[in-house]
Design brief:
- This is Tetratricopeptide repeat protein.
- It comes from Pontibacter fetidus.
- Keywords: Signal.
- InterPro entries: TPR-like_helical_dom_sf.
- By secondary structure, the chain is mainly alpha-helical.
- The chain folds into 2 domains: about 100 residues, Serine Threonine Protein Phosphatase 5, Tetratricopeptide repeat, CATH 1.25.40; about 100 residues, Alpha Horseshoe (Serine Threonine Protein Phosphatase 5, Tetratricopeptide repeat).
- The chain is built from 9 helices and no strands.
- The radius of gyration is 20 Å and the shape is globular.
- The chain starts with a helix and ends with a helix.
């Protein structure tokens, strides 16, 4: 009887310890997401990335630290005007994204980011890269949509890509509107798995949809 009680108590303590660690992990991610939202300089963004890397090292089975490190590098590249430096930042984003894919190869959110990385490559040289990377971006957004038809970011990014594609190549506001309309609906219905699950893009999608009307 005593052995059974000891086993039960041990199991409860282990469960509580796991719960506490999970809480610390989510708190660390949440705090760093706030830092990412407030970052304005390269140094501040780099501090955010460094922390996500430390969290990833401490939680090797969690994909969100690599996901958010990728997103941070994408944001950094968006602020960079030098083409070579922009590519270097996107290379680093890709490295983190590859690590996340190793953990969850069928995660819809990762394909959204993969398409996003491809889109950012275009800005280095739109004339030379537009055709290739827009195709790769759309391919990944469609994959994200197929894996999770309720992922609003897949529709938002498809709509954004269409909006910024010349009408002669099948883009423009009219082509983008159906995707952005769906994105708006999906955002309103979305129920993130946790407080630290991806939930970005709603305001940008609604703003872009307003430009289509």
């Amino acid at each position: 009887m005593k052995k059974q009680i000891l086993l039960i108590v041990t199991a409860i303590l282990l469960a509580l310890n796991t719960f506490a660690q999970k809480g610390n992990y989510e708190a660390a991610i949440g705090q760093n997401l706030e830092s990412m939202r407030n970052a304005k300089t390269v140094q501040e963004y780099q501090q955010v990335v460094n922390k996500f890397e430390r969290i990833a090292a401490a939680e090797p089975n969690e994909w969100l630290p690599a996901y958010y490190a990728t997103l941070t590098y994408i944001n950094m590249s968006d602020d960079e005007t030098d083409g070579d430096k922009k590519d270097q930042l996107l290379d680093k984003a890709q490295q983190h994204l590859d690590n996340a894919f190793k953990l969850v190869p069928k995660e819809s959110e990762l394909y959204v980011l993969q398409g996003y990385v491809h889109l950012m490559r275009i800005s280095v040289s739109p004339m030379l890269r537009g055709m290739k990377y827009s195709g790769l971006a759309i391919e990944n957004f469609e994959k994200a949509k197929a894996l999770n038809p309720d992922n609003p970011r897949a529709y938002f990014m498809l709509g954004s890509t269409k909006f910024n594609t010349p009408a002669m190549f099948g883009g423009g506001p009219e082509a983008a509107k159906p995707y952005l309309t769906t994105a708006k609906a999906k955002y309103s219905q979305a129920k993130p798995a946790s407080a630290i699950a991806p939930h970005w893009g709603q305001k940008a999608a609604e703003s872009l949809l307003a430009k289509c009307n």
